[in-house]
Amino acid sequence: MSSPPPPWPWTDPYVADLSLPGMVFAAMARSTHAHAALRSIDLAPALATPGVLAAVDGRAFPLMGGVIHSSRDEPVLAVDRVRYVGEPLAAVAAVSPEAAKAGAASVAAAFDPLPPVLTMRSVGLDVPLHEEHPDNVLRDVALEFGPVDESFASARAVFAGTYHYGASTHAALEPHGVVAWWRPEGRLWVWTSTQCPHLVQHGVARLMGLEPSAVRVITPRVGGGFGGKSEVFSHEVVAARLSMLLGRPVRLILSREEVFYTHRGRHEALIDLRLAVGAHDEILGLDADIILNGGAYAGMGLVTTYYAGQFLGIPYRVGAFRFRSRRVFTNAPPAGPKRGHGSVQIRFAVERLLDRAALSLGLNPLAWRMSLALKSDETTLNGLKIGSSGFTRCLEEIARMTAPLQCGEGEAIGVAGSAYISGAAFPIIPNRLPHSQAILRADRSGLFVLTVGVAEIGQGALETLRTLVAQTLGQPTDRVLAVAGDTDACPVDLGSYSSRVTLMAGNAVIAAAAAVRRQLLEAAGDRLAVAPESLDLVPNRVVVREDPGGKGMSLTRAIARAEERIGTVIGSGSYAPAVEPGPYPGGALGPSPAFSFTAAAAKVRFDPDLGAVEVTDIWIAHDCGRAVNLARVNAQLHGCALMGLGEALMEQAGLHRGIMDPVGMLDYGVPTARDLPRIHAVVVSAADPAGPLGAKEAGEGPLLPVVPAIANAVARAAGLDICAIPLSSEDLVRPSARETPLSGEAALR
Amino acid sequence: MSICDVRTARSLEEALVLTAEGWLPLAGGTDLVPRMKHGLLTGARVVIVRGLKELHGVHTTDTGLVVGACTTIADLCRSSACPPWLGGACAQIAGPRVRELATVGGALLQERRCRYYNRPVLWRTASGACLRTGGDRCLAGGDRCCATQRSLLSTVLVAVSASVVISRGAEERSVLLEDLYGPEAGAWRAGGIIRSVSISRMAEAEGKVAVEWIRRRASIDYHDLVVAGASRAGSPHEVSVTVGAAVPYPRRIVLPSPAPGGAIRSAATLIPSAQSGRLSPAYLRHAAVVLAGRVIARVAP
What we know:
The complex is a heterodimer of chains A (about 750) and B (about 300). Helix content of chain A is about 25%, strand content about 25%. Chain A is of the alpha+beta class. Chain A has 3 domains: about 15-115 and about 175-255, Aldehyde oxidase/xanthine dehydrogenase, a/b hammerhead (Aldehyde Oxidoreductase, domain 3, Alpha-Beta Complex); about 270-425 and about 585-730, 2-Layer Sandwich (Aldehyde Oxidoreductase, domain 4); about 435-575, Aldehyde Oxidoreductase, domain 4, CATH 3.30.365. Chain A has a 7-stranded mixed β-sheet. In chain A, helix 8 (about 345-360) runs parallel beside helix 15 (about 705-720). Chain B has helices at about 10-20, 30-35, 75-80, 85-90, 95-100, 105-110, 120-125, 150-160, 175-180, 185-190, 260-270, 280-300; strands spanning about 5-10, 25, 45-50, 60, 65-70, 165-170, 170-175, 195-200, 210-215, 225-230, 235-245, 250-255. The relative contact order of chain B is 0.13. Chain B has about 300 residues and is an alpha+beta fold. The interface of A and B includes residues 105, 609, 663, 664 and 729 of A.
């Protein structure tokens, strides 16, 4: 079998391609106010629009949405107040997309404008967005580990800086979309572009007043997520309600503009950071005050608030640290998880300050980082158990690749390091249930059918999981089919986020494969009169390990013998991390079964007259444990380099005049192929005992050091202290050049 | 899309009758269609002229190069008659897919753009109306529209004193491209169709044209600023600088010899003081001077 296995056989590849008998189309009316009381909303004009069949507003949804129990503050559709431009007000179903849009446009809403909160810098001084948070702070977290004040008092040098990290968004190529169908038998089927089908199942059920068993969520192919499709969204719930009203399938696909309003991208961050360096160049202390711009609603912001501080120190050994982290409400679309959730902003700040300190103290920035690196089996002050660490080797690889290089005029190389979780050790909704489950069935044909609950979002998760099965069973990967992304068909998995799939679903998959392997070897051993322990599986055969050319049997025959013996040959596996939370409030946010490590370098060419930056090369060395699928890991490293380049130089998604800006892909600066530098990616293998066959994550961690590596290179090339991302030519242009007087200006006006 | 009628012209004569009645000519559609999608051309009537053979082709003549207005940017690049300086500039326009659709005429008549105008309906509703959408003020500040034509091609062709042939009804005129953007020729071209662009041979000489630009990404994006320098072969003391993309329409300045410094700096003053794009006027003015110095260094004798 040389061709890849077919996709899970739903009708069409993406949600927007689905077409069901009797299907109608929905569109949403949205707020044009950043902050206003919603005085009234009138659906009558929409219902009078030709082709419109039904319309709903916020009164149809009595419960508040939100992933985290303690911060459910987001209405499905606005009820009495709007908190950002683009917030959903109402939804309309019609016989055509055009009629639905016309109906949505005719929804009449009356507002009483309120003063908008447009910046997080005035925290505590603005009109409250939520009555339960009078200071506009969702959560104010302060944690301290070790004697911070003493460490600063005894430091040989203290460095301080204020760093700003701009908001950015995911820019997945496929917009969010859903098809919901309330079926005659009284069940709801939901096809949606999501990273978390089981989360959507439970979220939609709760908001619709249904039992989870009444909701089936299916993820067709998903065109990218990057964290932006890991919550339960308004459009998913309103499509379900409209379908229930009409008894017909309802399709609702967000426009690109609506995707920008839906957002949930990287939090804007303002970080005051101090660093204490000891007599032996060790990090004595770190002290951070972090403010995160969370937008209008909580979403997953509680996690972001903790992550921003909990990952302050890693990948370095730190004598003491403390942080205060606050997530602030503003009248912007809600921020949320984006690749490297919570860590990217603080990594930029720490790596910049480290580089400044290295320059000031005359230390080689790369060698210094090596001396500070966390080693395998260390435990951090806040209780993060590191497991395996290949960080030193990552730095060595960067040194090896960059050492021979010469920098010309205006050129410089910057380096940075990072670590990241391989899945969160504790689920968002506290419980002791498995995080991942898998079922593997051996078919008489010689195929193995794997059923898992993860969502394939383009990252290659299923290929990796199939590879793990294949390696456990000694078979070619194309002998393994994967069925995924259907809550009716698949066991529970928490979803494709937090870089958890390879480790968590991978461990569940390996357990299931090991069970099938055992069944096959026992059946074959029984027939061959050989102890199962002496047998092995090789491609298409069961053989005696010590005599592979001797007696044995074909794989299909072994499967048949096992079926005769035990019936269906099936194995199941599940995984829950064996990790303890830190013994302090919030100690469950941060621990992971394993941590990946990355070192990166960037070479830039700087034009001082224009403040222009060209990144010519990016080097990434990433410790992903054992690379299960080297091609996929390399693809992730390249993708992280691309996204890091974009965040460093081009991408920004903030407010302009109180409105999300930009709202289109022409204006949002995702790098193009012509912007790409040379990317040099190296995989470092530090197999982790917690990972499946030693594997750790590779999808998010490699992004973290790319941005500060670029910033550090620019700082060196330009001779400036880079404190803000994205880099702006206007800020970087040589001051003396900028002050050039313009003669004749007045005469030519 | 909010258009009320679309027709495909079967002949140039038919197209001219329709445009005289107010129909908008659509060739590549890369400028017009996004504006339609954004609800900026409500009720517009559109005549598709892309298929008219008279408007296609790249030809050399005794005096220079003639390019049909509906020739795509990509076809112009691929033409063996296209001089390297022009092909190189065209390769910087938008991205490959757009270049296969976008036409030379469309690039020259590209509508002026602004961060407040080229937006979807909801965004514009939230931000309020600007001068072009029924408001009484420019949202970037001031009482004059600060939108700019972000066309690299028009800047380059103004720099080499290209001219265009315009048909309107039974009339036909040849107009210097730079003048096309002035009030007189601009008024006359309304209701007409650009047939071709002529680039005189003396501007084709290699090494006499240099183009520099500011652009966020190396593909797709509109240019923030384009500065083109040109010198006339045979009269080496005539050096000009043309500023585009950051100004309402490209403006050409002939630099006086022997002291061009003041004129170079004056190029910067062409940039409006209100911000219509992602970069501030102060930065663009500074960059215009820097880029003008660079292109002059490349074209000056």
